[in-house]
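Hallway conversation turned thread

IA: we were arguing at lunch whether anyone had actually written out MinD/ParA/CobQ/CobA-like protein end to end. Turns out nobody had. So, for the record, here is the sequence (163 residues) and right after it the structure tokens. Reply here if something looks off.
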Amino acid sequence: MGDVGHALAEFVREVAPDFDYVVLDSPPDVSNLPTWSCLMAAEHVLVPIVPETFSAQAIAGVDRTLATAQAANRKLRFLGYVVNLRKTISTYHEANEERLRAIHGDRVLNTVLTNLTAFAEAQGLRKSVAEYAPNSAADKLTREFCDEVLVRIERQAQARKAA
């Protein structure tokens, strides 16, 4: 991947001192250059999983890619899988989420990002959910998700210090 694969990592190192966190969002295909670049630049990785059969089956491939990325980027830590775009009235999604949790346990975040209209509307208006729909269910869910991610980051930092 050479210089192109590490350009994002260099950029993140340059801007990181100006921010509390730098969040990189990549395409879902873990085998492409933009996603690989994000993995080389990141310290933590979350994997969104739509609770459907093919998404759940893709986890083995994602895990292999993450292992390869962690060999190349020793700072990269897996934070967990986040159930995303879950339909609240779908027994199919409910069953797949239960199966995912049974297999992967605490590797799956407790917070579930449900398929709320406010997420799509805010994105379409290029606003955060907090700006578009403050105090909405989507805003509260986003805050819950962020809180859980920060707790996981802190736990990993404490575990590294203790080791």
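OS: looked through it. The mean pLDDT is 89.
IA: good, adding that to the notes. The first helix runs from residue 2 to 15.
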